[in-house]
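Notes from the pairing session

We agreed to fold both candidates in a single pass and log them together. This is the raw record for the first candidate, unedited. Please don't reformat it; downstream parsing expects exactly this layout.

Candidate A
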Amino acid sequence: MFQDETAPLNQYFSLPKVELHRHLEGSLRLSTMLDIAKNHGVTIPVSMLNLSGLVQVQDKDPMTFTNFLDKFKTLRLFYKSPDVIHRVTREAVEDAAKDNCRYLELRFTPVALSRAEGFPLHDVMDWVISSAQEEAKKHKMKVGLIASVNRHESPELAEQVAWLAVEHMKHGLLALDLAGNEAEFKTDGFRGIFKEARQSGLRITIHAGEWGPAENVRDAIENLGAERIGHGVRVLESESVTALARERGMVFEVCVTSNFQSGVVESLELHPLPRMLDAGLKVTVNTDDPSVSRITLAHEYQHVCEDLNIPMDVLKSCVLNAAKASFLPENEKTELIDSLKKELKI
């Protein structure tokens, strides 16, 4: 599923990792998709190579938002049974464990997972949570779950997911996320839902400042109660929003390869992550959709150090930032931070 590992990648692979921004729907293995197609009659190309072109960004592809999102049109065909959803969840956690990830916050979109076969949203959430936790235990790592809703879908649907998420808090669901097309859809209809979700104890992370302007980051902070920002790389377009994010200690879940592949930045080398650090913003490094992007978190760490010239000690501080910004209960968070400090020798 991923690029070949090379000797220089080993130093990044060996680092203990924390990931705050990984979508389950963008984490499916190619081999698993072929199995599902065979067993459930999904009509797709029979070869791994041809399937890869439909569900993964290729070097020859146009690096645009449209091309990136097109991959998910095919991916949505695969959620054909409870067993499939259990399997893809277990494998997403296993892949993170193989990448030396100590803590993963895995976000999933219940509506997307339920739609192919009309599964009840409540059941979908049960399946993802139980499988993620079982697999995490097997690999002696921690996994937190985040339920995601889309801006381009109805607030009524988001409200259903939010209340189900509150119900599932006792089973390890930690947070609510707003994703989807921020360029064309406003957040007005979602503000009350996110306010009530936060009052009920759910933590809040919001996709903003990726395909929309810096003002969307302000909107996420002031009107949606964001504690973290998904992507947020356009925050630097406004000095006042940058200042607000810095003053609030806002944490940015930055996804370098994804931002290049979806056309947010023109090249990996021009990614604004170094300037975000220079502006005093708290930055974390994440994959977004590792299968779609054909990467691991080790690849992202390598890009950050070698393409963006970020020193290793700064990367290590980003890993620690991620642990500190996690939505874990305080006692578990302290334990994670202490163990990372020892491993990272900082």
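Candidate B (folded immediately after A)
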Amino acid sequence: MIALDPLRPISADRLTVGARPVHEAGPAFGELLARKLFDQGIKVSAHAQRRLDGVTPRTDAAGRLGQAVARAEQKGATQSLILVDDLAFVVSVRNRTVATAVDGGRTSDGIFTNIDSVVIG
């Protein structure tokens, strides 16, 4: 908890709820993505949502990701790495669930395992 000193104002960037600043307007990208994909029958894990905090997509990432999942499903994929702009998503196609997500600038070693296909969305 932050102690408030009435003589010294506190800056808004020091006020946080969880990992997100209070002054932030609207939901994080991970939450928005989950909402949009839910309409397409695709779930987004809490882990993937957390990994997308602070990410600002350039395009209609949710629509393109949904289309990529459908294409992977048509080809019989079960675990796919789906690339949308500079974002990478590991998706359980069989369960229609985004298991994890990685922002291109945050990859630690650039290695993805346990996938049987790659889809460029």
